[in-house]
Amino acid sequence: MVLVTGAAGKTGRTVVQALAERGVRVRALVFREEDSVPLRRLGATEVVAADMRDAKAFNRAASGVRAIYHICPNVHPEEVEIGEAAIAAARSSEVERFVYHSVLLPAVEAMPHHWLKYRVEKLLAESGVAFTALQPCAYMQNVLAQWDSIAELGRFAVPYGIDVEISLVDLADVAEAAAIVLTTQGRAGATYELCGPEAISPARMADSLGRHLGRPVRAEEEDVAAWARGARSTGLDEYRIDALVRMFGYYDRRGFTGSPDALAWLLGRGPATFDDFVARTVAERSPPHGGRSLPFSDPRESETN
């Protein structure tokens, strides 16, 4: 049995499915009871609803599992405290393996939510728990939140420069790598950057989107203040808005790039390119008989990996 925390988010759902497809029994930890049904459909053996900030509930969720895949709620101000609870639960249950879903470049203090993940990595290194850290870059799937605008208006907006180079990774490849790490021997003490085979700018992403959609798509730099107002109107809290604005500022100054080598080695193949992802997505989501395309993402999600 493997415990996957934060299982209701897009990362958790994909990891649960990847593990289930390998015949692994999965206990999914969610915050809301209503998330149980879709996770069972994806292959979760058990679903437990609890607040990860509740140490006793976390300990109960971890009881009897062989391994933990820990995903903290996205851009959470209490990432360190939740990490401490996860590590304590791993110790209490004497798990064989703890895999932490971190982020590319966690040691960059200019991105506050990355820095919190770095602090959790330090706690793990000092904990005595056999752990592996996975450090994915930004997901290709993040473009899906804008799909209607991209497909219908030909507009792809980002709150940083359109020529900034960003490493992207297909979430399916991240989930496969996680499943491999959780089901094969070794890996203790390893840290793996999980990046696709290229760094790509929003301008080049727009070109790929346009080719596969069969219509022009233009990349536009959105004013950060306007982005923040829009995020605030959706109910995003001030901590998350500030953390993400700081992240966008870092992107503008430095880009956000990593190496594809570790992911390719784990998978035993080349990771998906952005062009591969767009081609697959357009094929999967093209409506039959020319109807309107289906929505791509749950509006509750704001994950930034």
Description:
The structure is a single chain. This protein is globular. Mean pLDDT is 93; it is low at 289-303. The protein starts with a strand and ends in a 20-residue tail after the last helix. Helices cover 44% and strands 15% of the residues. It is built from twelve helices and twelve strands. It has a seven-stranded parallel beta sheet with strand order 3-2-1-4-5-6-10, with helices on both faces. Strands 7-9-11 form a three-stranded mixed beta sheet. The chain has a two-stranded parallel ribbon with strand order 8-12. The protein is an alpha/beta fold and 305 residues long. It has helices at 10-21, 36-41, 55-62, 79-93, 112-127, 147-153, 171-183, 202-213, 224-233, 238-254, 261-267, 274-285; strands at residues 2-4, 26-30, 46-49, 67-70, 97-101, 131-136, 138-139, 155-158, 166-169, 191-194, 199-200, 218-221.
| Percent helix range | 40-55%
Give the strand order of the largest sheet, numbering strands 1, 2, ... along the chain. Answer: 3-2-1-4-5-6-10
CA-based shape: globular
Average pLDDT level: 93
Uncertain stretches of 5 or more adjacent residues = 289-303
Cα(first) to Cα(last) distance is 26 Å
Please provide the ordered H/E string of secondary-structure elements: EHEHEHEHEHEEHEEHEEHEHHHH
In total, how many beta strands?
Answer: 12
Largest sheet: 7 strands, parallel
- Secondary structure tally, helices: 12
Percent in strands: 15-25%
- Rg calculated over all Cα atoms: 19 Å
Assign the structural class, choosing from mainly alpha, mainly beta, alpha/beta, alpha+beta, or little secondary structure. Answer: alpha/beta
